[in-house]
Prior knowledge:
The structure is a homotetramer.
Chain A: E1 15-19, H1 34-53, E2 63-72, E3 82-91, E4 95-104, E5 107-120, E6 123-124, H2 129-135
Antiparallel strand pairs in A: 1-3, 2-5, 3-4, 4-5, 5-6
Amino acid sequence: MKADPRRRDPGNYAWTAEMETRFADMDVNGHLNNVAITRFFEETRIRFNWSLFAGALAERPRFLVGHVAVDFLAEGHYPAPVTMAYALASIGTTSFRSAKAMFQKGRCIALCDTVLVHRGADGPAPLPDALRERLEPLLLKGAAATAGGRG
Amino acid sequence: MKADPRRRDPGNYAWTAEMETRFADMDVNGHLNNVAITRFFEETRIRFNWSLFAGALAERPRFLVGHVAVDFLAEGHYPAPVTMAYALASIGTTSFRSAKAMFQKGRCIALCDTVLVHRGADGPAPLPDALRERLEPLLLKGAAATAGGRG
Amino acid sequence: MKADPRRRDPGNYAWTAEMETRFADMDVNGHLNNVAITRFFEETRIRFNWSLFAGALAERPRFLVGHVAVDFLAEGHYPAPVTMAYALASIGTTSFRSAKAMFQKGRCIALCDTVLVHRGADGPAPLPDALRERLEPLLLKGAAATAGGRG
Amino acid sequence: MKADPRRRDPGNYAWTAEMETRFADMDVNGHLNNVAITRFFEETRIRFNWSLFAGALAERPRFLVGHVAVDFLAEGHYPAPVTMAYALASIGTTSFRSAKAMFQKGRCIALCDTVLVHRGADGPAPLPDALRERLEPLLLKGAAATAGGRG
């Protein structure tokens, strides 16, 4: 993630939102804790997916988080807010990979990739076409739509 | 991580410890939450590193977490305890990569790789020799000691 | 709570259990955080109530937490474990009040009172007799069984 | 707290602020968790005290949280934001008691009282006059300024 300079520019993401930090997000070192940063990426994924799936599909698809990876680039601080950015990194057959970033005061603090696997009754199932159509416009600028979702 | 079957066998790790789960580790789905699982890996790293560094080095080295990746393999549940396993995946020049796993009732729930970077006054600094000597016996059984810490 | 010396003696409680502390329970001050201490009392309540209700009642009663009060008496530390103690402070008509305490290295760190209200279809409902019989032997030594549950 | 109707009217508090809820604030019941609600009151206290103490005193006074009590009045939900309200309930010799409330969609969800004790080198110390002058205008409308800080 960190080797790709496009990932550090909020303008390359499909969606951004400001979020508040909390005193409890700090650990004994006085910075935003690594796991708390992972929590911000969870919140970003959930808020984004709710708006993505809402009203779009006859039945809400079921996804499992298969993989999460975070690069920590700089210290984050309380009480300044953070800006969270979300895009898609790649769309596969039964899964897709999101590309997220966290900024504070204009600086990129962390990057996150998450693989969500679509679950059917018997395991991974193909992404519904209606969802795929919604996902494609959300790809990170310059990312390859044909890359595998499992990275 | 998940492609390597050695990672799912607790016998391949240098250190294991049982940890309690908490009601608060569950989310609305009634399973151990993904970020809560990441929290268990943080706790594992901290407890292991404290015992690793304790009394070993004239001065306690300073490390930053540069990267964390987690593969989620199965649902975890409350209130059963979990068994956390820790080994080294690889040792580089200025960093090392740990290989961790989480088990519940004998089943592997999640795998985690973490890259810790040794910090000097001006950025990444070579691992102290005394630490390197302590790290090498802790490699995951079958792992390559010469692989790069940055993966 | 703190004015009652009986509350600081683990021997006066009906049930005690040791629990692990976590790195994440500390805040920037390097102590166990106040809210994290409240989390330990939640965990104590849930574990105790599960064993209390299990197999005892034809139908599991539904309770709401109406009130929680905590006295903070001393700093708690990581990574030493804590000992949690649970008893009943009083049993009312539709609610009961628990008396809890948290100890570390033999020292009382915090006390907690919680009021649980029994919920029926239309609001507070009388405690089932079978539950009342189970609760009475659990009163804190010396506590008054006839005191109101709402304190 | 809950017996006092003034406490459920945001207009009686000296300070209010909107705060975001997070997915992680919910527990398995799908509501805002009781301890998460306590966490919102912690955040309120810290944000308010920082603005209260900032630039006001030659030396920042040291306070310990001695007591926290919460009345839970209604369920809270995600993802709607909450409105937090803060005032003083009473000002004592060495401590003061805050009166806080949490609202969501115009409904009072919870009330919280917190006692903060001023610490000197040898234990509780009188509140500095400069702080006392700042506190008095912040009393909950209709509250008695002469009441004891311990309630």
